[in-house]
């Protein structure tokens, strides 16, 4: 492995954090914004996206990065490899299946995945990559599309301290609150707790707006006045205004929330009775998805989680 990005920081006279190659696989909504922030910070970023021609690739090039056509070309010689993909199967396919990162990344590479996949999957991937001489960090994020664009994400990391230290200078270009939370799987465990906070909180935002309407008070006041009070929340401040404008664009796609709530229950052996509030949120999100003919999202699933409001219409 090359000398490590932390050792080459502070090159005199420039904002570059060394020339070590950083690969970024998955230039979707989150990946695009995060990779762009790395490139804007002067890092040597090489991106890859499964489907060519998506906006993320052009945005990364415009920010000073490069884009390769294959995983092999993107990750060969990379010191650090970031991924931001979809569900468990997607991350396993890109990282540990034949033709994936495990076949082409250099020995000692640090691979950090920002997708939400739950602790069980993270530990499996950690073991599989460790057997091939690579480090794996589960590094799910929270802060949404806004946090990704602003470089203010919270990044919850699970894995080895050595690997964390190697990835940290680059992680700090994408997040303001970057924490090693424990061994492999710890970041994902925390992220699932976070998803409960987000999902159940969305019920309260929708129901407060619903009540305001029923009681004949201006719904805008729920956002404008109550955001600063004890009932305020990220969801109320950021998604409340979108609900009031019937703006259901993602943000955080409903299909991803359904995935995450499925992961919550899978990671506790399907015992949904122990988390009744989470179960209700899952039912409401599903109702919105199913209204459009699919329990895993469909066209409504591509909408943001604020589309839960449609379950109350
Ligand atoms: P997105 O916009 O749908 O992007 C997904 C990316 O993953 C795309 O680049 C897609 O490539 C790629 N991908 C998916 N499956 C793949 C596969 N099997 N092989 C190769 N590439 C694959 O999703 P996102 O909103 O950025 O979210 C990505 C991850 O971050 C998810 O796990 C989500 O739960 C998590 N997350 C999202 C947010 C948020 O606010 N959006 C916040 C926190 C965490 P194509 O272009 O080829 O489809």
How big a fraction of the residues is strand? 5-15%
CATH topology of the largest domain: Rossmann fold
Q: Look at the structure and give the CATH class of the largest domain.
A: Alpha Beta
Give the low-confidence spans.
1-17, 293-297
Task: Supply the CATH architecture of the largest domain.
Answer: 3-Layer(aba) Sandwich
Overall 3D shape: globular
Name given to the CATH homologous superfamily of the largest domain? NAD(P)-binding Rossmann-like Domain
The total strand number stands at 9
Supply the number of structural domains: 2
Radius of gyration: 20 Å
Relative helix content: 40-55%
Short description:
47% of the residues lie in helices and 13% in strands. The protein has 313 residues and is of the alpha/beta class.
Question: What is the strand and helix layout of this fold?
Answer:
Elements: E1 21-25, H1 29-40, E2 44-48, H2 55-62, E3 66-67, H3 71-75, E4 80-83, H4 88-95, H5 101-104, E5 110-113, H6 119-130, E6 135-138, E7 141-142, H7 144-150, E8 153-158, H8 161-171, E9 175-182, H9 186-215, H10 219-224, H11 234-244, H12 254-266, H13 276-290, H14 298-301
Parallel strand pairs: 1-2, 1-4, 2-3, 4-5, 5-6, 8-9
Antiparallel strand pairs: 7-8
Helix pairs in contact: 1-2, 1-7, 9-12, 9-13, 12-13
Bound molecules: NADP nicotinamide-adenine-dinucleotide phosphate (NAP).
NADP nicotinamide-adenine-dinucleotide phosphate binds next to helix 1, helix 4, strand 7 and helix 7.
